[in-house]
Design goal:
Blueprint: H1 9-12, H2 20-30, E1 55-59, H3 65-76, E2 87-89, E3 98-102, H4 105-115, E4 118-120, E5 126-128, H5 143-146, H6 149-161, E6 169-170, E7 180-181, H7 187-193, E8 197-202, H8 206-216, H9 227-234, H10 236-251, H11 253-265, E9 277-278, E10 285-286, H12 297-328, E11 348-351, E12 358-361, H13 364-407, H14 410-415, H15 418-445, H16 450-479, H17 483-516, H18 518-526, H19 532-535, H20 546-562, H21 569-591, H22 605-627, H23 629-637, H24 642-666, H25 672-693
Antiparallel strand pairs: 1-3, 1-8, 2-3, 4-5, 6-7, 9-10, 11-12
Helix pairs in contact: 4-6, 9-10, 10-12, 10-21, 11-12, 11-21, 12-20, 12-22, 12-24, 13-15, 13-16, 15-16, 16-20, 16-22, 17-21, 20-22, 22-24
InterPro entries: Anoctamin, Anoctamin_TM
Pfam families: Anoctamin
Membrane topology: Multi-pass membrane protein
C-alpha cells in the first residue's frame, strides 16, 4: 500500500484542511494507525495527510490474506470499476482480522447528493447539495465541518452496502461451496453469509464522546439536551428519538398538574355514592351497590376531554417541532436511493424498467400475494393467541379463586398468584416468538426499498404490541365494566413497569459498567500498546430504538386511553421519563457500540402509531365516561334513561372526533418559515436540474 503522504508536493497544495476544533480529535483517532498503510487515491482534491478512521470491518479469525487483499482492493477501486471508492487500512498487518475504512472527499460529496442532504449555501440558506455546484457551498473543502461524523460514517456503510459483483466470480481464499458470487449479487451480504465478515460498525471518537457525555448526562441539569450535538455524533435516527423523548416529557407536565389537582384538590364523590348497576335487558340505571372513591362527575369529564385534546395537540405540535429540526439538520429534502435495491432484496436478474440497470427483479403481485395470503393470516393467528392467553388467564383466575374459597388453606392462597405469573410468562414467550416471526415474514415478503421493509415490520410489531398491552385493560373496562379493577390494574402496571424499567435500564447497566467493565477500562487506559479500535469490538451491538419507541407508545396509550380512570398516570410517567432520558443517554454512550444512523426527516411510522392511539382515545374516553359510576348516578338522579345516555355518548364521541379533525386541520404540520424554506429548496433543486440538462 502507498502512503497518501508520498503523492508529491503538487498534491499537498490541494490537501483539504481540517477544522481547528476537530483536528485534535482526528489526530487522536489516527495515531493508533500507521498513516502510510492507507490505500491511495487518484483524485488530487482527495489527498490528505491525516485520514480519519470511520468504520471497522471485523473479519473472521481465520481469514486468508488473499481474501483480505481482494476485499481491500474492492473497497478502494472506483464505483465505475465495481468498487466503493473508499479508503482502506489493513490494521496491524495484512494477516489481521480487521479492516479500517475511511472515505475521500469526492466520495463523501457524491453520496451527499445521492442522499438528498441539505447543506449551507454561500448565502447562508440550507440548500439540497449538488456535486456540480459544490464550490458554492460553505465549508465544502473541510469534511469535518461540512458533514457530521454520523453522516460520514453512514456514507461509508452506504457505499459498502451497495457493493455488487459486476460479473460472476469466485471469492479468493473461500471454499467454492460458499465463495461463488453471481452477477449483481451483494458482496458484503455474501461475505457475511460465508463467515468472512463478522460485523461492520462505526468507530467512536473518544474526545467527541467525552465532550458529549459531559454536556448530556454527566451534569446536574434535569431538563434540556444538546440535541444538535446528539444528531451530529449519533445521527438523525437517534437525534429524533431523543428530541421526541424530550418533547413528550415536557408535554407530560400539563396532564400531571391536572392529575394532581383532580386527585388531591377536587372534592371526591364521598362514601355515599357507589357503583350503579344496569338492570339486565332494560337499559335503565338503578341501584347503588358498592362504595367507590373515583373523582366526581366534573373531574371525570375534565380529565376525559383533556386527554382527548391533549393527545391531538401533542402530536400536531410535535410535527411542527420535527419539521423545524429536519430543516436545521439538513434533512428536509431526503431522497431514497432508487437506483439500488436494499442489500437483503433478491430476485431474478433482469433489466429494471425504471433505471435501465441489470439487477434482481421481483414481481409486485407476488409480494402482495405473500402479504395477503401468508403474513396477514399469521399475524391474525398471533393476535388470536393473545386473546386466547387472556381468556385462559381469566379462566385460571376464576378456578384459583373458587378453589381458595372452598379450601381456604395457605397453599390455595399461594395458588391465587399462579394465573398472573403464568399469563406474564405466556405473553413474554409469545412476544419473543412473534418478534422473530415478524422479522422473518418481512424478509420473506422481499421489499425492494429499506423504508418499505421497515414500515411493514414496524406495523406487524405494533399490532401485536397494542393487543398484548391493552387487550386486558379493554376487556376489564368494556366487557367486565369494572372501573375500580381497571384503576387498580392500571396503577399496578404503571408502578411495577416503572420499577422494572428503572432497575433494568439504570441500576443493572450502572453495576455492569462500574464493577465488571472497570478493570478492562483501566487496562486499556494504562497500557499504551492496546489497540483502541480493536477494544471497541468487545462492546455489544446497539439493540436499536424499537423497544424504546414501544415503551413510549405504551405510555402514550395508558395516558390517552385510560387516564380519566386514574388521573395520576401522567405524574408517574413524568417521574419515569426524567430518569429515562439520562438512562438512555448513558446506555448509548457507554454500554454499546456506536450504531449506524441513516438520515431521516422524522420519527417515521411511529408518528402514525401515536396518532392512531390519539384517535382511539376519543372512543375509549367517551365510553369510560359513560361507564363511570359517578356519571351513571348523576344521569339516574336526572331521570335520563339508559338509552338516551348511550345516544348522548355517541353524539359526544362524534363531536369530539370532529373537534380533533378540526384541530389537526387548523394547526399546520410545519411552520410557515419551514414551508417557505422547503419550497425554496425544491425550487433551487429544479433550477440545478435544469442547468445540468443544458
Amino acid at each position: 500500500m502507498t502512503s497518501l503522504g508520498d503523492k508529491g508536493e503538487g498534491h499537498r497544495e490541494t490537501t483539504a484542511l481540517l477544522g481547528n476544533e476537530d483536528e485534535g480529535s482526528v489526530q487522536t483517532q489516527t495515531k493508533v494507525l500507521n498513516q502510510g498503510s492507507w490505500t491511495q487515491v487518484s483524485c488530487p482534491c482527495c489527498v490528505s495527510e491525516q485520514v480519519e478512521p470511520l468504520v471497522l470491518i471485523q473479519l473472521s479469525d481465520n481469514i486468508q490474506p488473499v481474501t483480505k487483499r481482494w476485499l481491500i482492493s474492492l473497497i478502494e477501486v472506483s464505483e465505475r470499476d465495481g468498487g466503493a471508492a473508499l479508503l482502506a487500512h489493513p490494521g496491524e498487518d495484512e494477516c489481521g482480522d480487521v479492516i479500517v475504512v475511511s472515505a475521500p472527499r469526492c466520495t463523501l460529496l457524491r453520496a451527499t447528493e445521492d442522499l438528498g442532504l441539505c447543506k449551507k449555501y454561500h448565502n447562508g440558506d440550507m440548500v439540497a447539495f449538488s456535486y456540480n455546484d459544490r464550490d458554492n457551498f460553505s465549508n465544502v473543502d473541510d469534511m469535518q465541518e461540512f458533514l457530521t461524523l454520523a453522516e460520514r460514517q453512514y456514507i461509508v456503510k452506504y457505499e459498502l452496502d451497495f457493493l455488487r459483483a459486476q460479473k460472476g466470480q469466485k471469492i479468493p481464499g473461500v471454499p467454492e461451496s460458499q465463495g461463488v458470487l453471481k452477477a449483481r449479487e451483494n458482496i458484503c451480504q455474501k461475505l457475511e453469509k460465508a463467515g468472512v465478515i463478522k460485523d461492520i460498525f462505526p468507530l467512536h471518537d473518544k474526545q467527541r464522546l467525552t465532550d458529549l457525555c459531559r454536556n448530556w448526562y454527566s451534569g446536574k441539569q434535569i431538563w434540556g439536551q444538546p440535541l444538535d450535538s446528539i444528531q451530529a455524533y449519533f445521527g438523525g435516527t437517534v437525534g429524533f428519538y431523543f428530541s421526541f423523548l424530550d418533547f413528550y416529557t415536557w408535554a407530560l407536565v400539563p396532564p400531571a398538574i391536572l392529575g394532581l389537582v383532580l386527585t388531591f384538590l377536587l372534592p371526591r364523590g364521598g362514601s355515599g355514592a357507589g357503583v350503579v348497576k344496569e338492570q339486565a335487558g332494560e337499559g335503565v340505571m338503578e341501584g347503588v351497590v358498592e362504595v367507590d372513591d373515583s373523582p366526581s362527575v366534573s373531574g371525570h369529564m375534565v380529565q376525559a376531554v383533556f386527554s382527548m385534546l391533549w393527545s391531538t395537540l401533542v402530536m400536531e405540535f410535535w410535527k411542527r417541532r420535527s419539521s423545524s429540526l429536519s430543516h436545521r439538520w439538513g434533512l428536509l429534502h431526503l431522497a431514497e436511493r432508487f437506483a439500488e435495491p436494499r442489500p437483503g432484496f433478491h430476485g431474478t436478474l433482469g433489466i429494471n424498467p425504471v433505471t435501465g440497470r441489470l439487477e434482481p427483479l421481483f414481481p409486485e403481485w407476488q409480494r402482495q400475494l405473500r402479504v395477503g395470503l401468508v403474513s396477514v393470516p399469521l399475524v391474525g393467528f398471533f393476535l388470536g393467541m393473545v386473546v386466547l392467553g387472556m381468556t385462559g388467564f381469566y379462566h385460571g383466575e376464576a378456578l384459583a379463586q373458587g378453589f381458595h374459597q372452598d379450601s381456604g388453606s395457605l397453599f390455595s392462597g399461594a395458588l391465587l398468584y399462579l394465573p398472573s405469573v403464568a399469563h406474564i410468562v405466556y405473553t413474554n414467550m409469545l412476544g419473543n416468538v412473534y418478534r422473530t416471526v415478524a422479522m422473518q415474514l418481512t424478509e420473506w415478503e422481499n421489499h425492494r426499498e429499506e423504508s418499505s421493509f421497515q414500515n411493514h415490520h414496524t406495523t406487524k410489531v405494533l399490532l401485536f404490541t397494542f393487543f398484548n398491552y391493552f387487550a386486558v385493560l379493554f376487556h376489564i373496562a368494556f366487557y367486565k365494566q369494572d372501573l375500580p379493577l381497571l384503576r387498580k390494574r392500571l396503577a399496578s402496571l404503571l408502578i411495577v413497569t416503572q420499577l422494572v424499567n428503572q432497575c433494568t435500564e439504570v441500576v443493572v447497566p450502572f453495576i455492569v459498567d462500574r464493577f465488571f467493565s472497570a478493570p478492562q477500562k483501566k487496562q486499556q487506559e494504562d497500557d499504551p500498546d492496546v489497540d483502541k479500535l480493536r477494544a471497541q469490538r468487545s462492546l455489544p451491538p446497539f439493540p436499536g430504538l424499537f423497544a424504546e419507541y414501544i415503551e413510549l407508545l405504551v405510555q402514550f396509550g395508558y395516558l390517552s386511553l385510560f387516564s380519566c380512570v386514574y388521573p395520576l398516570t401522567a405524574v408517574l410517567l413524568l417521574l419515569n421519563n426524567v430518569t429515562e432520558i439520562r438512562a438512555d443517554a448513558y446506555k448509548i454512550c457507554k454500554l454499546f457500540r456506536k450504531p449506524f444512523s441513516a438520515p431521516v426527516s422524522n420519527i417515521g411510522v411511529w408518528q402514525t402509531a401515536f396518532e392512531v392511539l390519539g384517535f382511539v382515545s376519543v372512543m375509549s374516553n367517551c365510553w369510560l365516561l359513560l361507564l363511570s359510576p359517578r356519571v351513571r348516578e348523576f344521569c339516574l338522579e336526572g331521570g335520563i334513561s339508559g338509552r338516551n345516555i348511550i345516544l348522548f355518548a355517541i353524539l359526544i364521541e362524534h363531536v369530539l372526533i370532529l373537534v380533533k379533525m378540526i384541530l389537526a386541520f387548523m394547526i399546520p404540520d410545519e411552520p410557515d418559515w419551514v414551508r417557505i424554506k422547503r419550497e425554496q429548496i425544491e425550487f433551487h433543486s429544479m433550477q440545478a436540474l435544469g442547468q445540468q440538462k443544458l
